[in-house]
Structure formats: structure tokens, C-alpha cells
């Protein structure tokens, strides 16, 4: 038994980011052709495209602002024209900002999180799910966060955006399930990425001490969960919120 995505095409938003790059490489290594979305980092997108092509898979880059419906529709048209039907959509992009208390957080940060978490999900669904319905097959995956369950201080804008995203995904899962489309979320904890490896910041004893597995997860472990949910092995899993954080948060029944 193995994860086989041959013949599939996957779009990853924010594919030039720390987690997105590893997701793109991982899905390509499982056989998928890749649509690499980027917002500003054209150079990194081109480098990633070359990497994936060296794996023997097709890859294109698409630029766009995922908080703008016109951009998402343009991305869909470009992907369809160059690679055909998009089977897997991974909503990974998110706007970064500085965290502070509810009383001090600028209102613009709440708006940006709503736009990049909730509206991105809606725009991607409107653009890509109709074709999945026609084909009666598809994978729609969102990258959420353990913060959505923790509700720690200074997390309000991020948590609000991701909890809103969670609502969209759960409803969408019920609306499109009859078409054999699965809709799931992966919720990373504080994850080790290339940035940590480059800076020597992989170890954080304060955070790891709260995690049952006593360590931080890696970008590859997040990508592995995405690959599984993208595959036929997860064909009867939908509406799931899957923490990939060593047990740091545990959804209750």
C-alpha cells in the first residue's frame, strides 16, 4: 500500500512558503502534477517549479492574491488551460502580521485574517469545486492550526480567522460529500521548517514540554498528512480536523 497521486493535479496556495514548499515536493514525489501559487516570491516559485520538473512531474506557477475572487478565478483558468482538471486543492496561504492583545490588535489584522482564511476558502471552493462535482471526485484540504483550539493570549485575529475557516470547511464537507469530494483540514502545531534549520532554532524546550511527544513536528510531517488526505487511502474521510502536533491539542467527542 502506498500513496499514489499519479494522474492527479494539485494546487497549493502559498506554495513558496515554509510549509507550502514541502507540500509541493511531497505531492509531486507521490506522482501529482503541481500548480504552484505565489503572491510575491516569483523567484522562489520558479526554483520550486524546476525542482518538481526534475522529479519528472509537470509544474506551473500562478501568481495571485487569494483574497481577491478575480485572481483566484484567473488562477483556475490558467491551471485548467495548462494542466487540465485540478483534482486536489490545498488552501495553505495566510497573511502574516504581528500578534498582540485584543485591545491593541489593529482592526485591519482581523480583516486580513478573515480574508486570507475564510474568503480564500470560499473563493477556492467556488472556482474549483464545480468541476470536481462534475467528475464526482476531488480533495479540498485546508491548513488550519492548533491555535484554533488553544485560544491563547495574543492569538485573537489568527484564531478568529481559522475558526471561521473551520466553519466553511465543515459545511462544505456536508454540501459536496454526495459527489465523493472530501473536505478536510490539517492543523499543525509550531512546526520546524527550513527557517529553523537555517537559524538553529529547531529546539524550544518551553513549547515542547507541553507536547505529549516532547518535541516540535516537522514540515515533512505536515506534508505527509496532506498527502494522505489527498490520496484514495482517505476516500471515506471528510469533515475532519486533523491536528498534527504530537497531541498538543486533542479534539474531544
Major β-sheet, in short? 7 strands, parallel
Q: Categorize the overall geometry.
A: globular
Instruction: Please trace the helix and strand order, writing H or E for each element.
Output: EHEHEHEHEHHEHHHE
Q: What is the helix fraction of residues, given as a range?
A: 40-55%
CATH level 1 name? Alpha Beta
CATH level-two architecture: 3-Layer(aba) Sandwich
By DSSP (H or I, 4+ residues per run), the number of helices equals 9
Beta strands, count: 7
Radius of gyration: 17 Å
Pfam family, one: adh_short_C2
Protein name: SDR family oxidoreductase
Keywords: Oxidoreductase
GO molecular function, one term: oxidoreductase activity
Model description:
The chain is α/β, with parallel strands linked by helices. It has one domain: NAD(P)-binding Rossmann-like Domain (Rossmann fold), CATH 3.40.50. It is built from nine helices and seven strands. A seven-stranded parallel beta sheet has the order 3-2-1-4-5-6-7, with helices on both faces. Helix 1 packs across helix 9, helix 3 (69-83) packs parallel to helix 4 and helix 4 packs parallel to helix 6. The radius of gyration is 17 Å and the shape is globular.
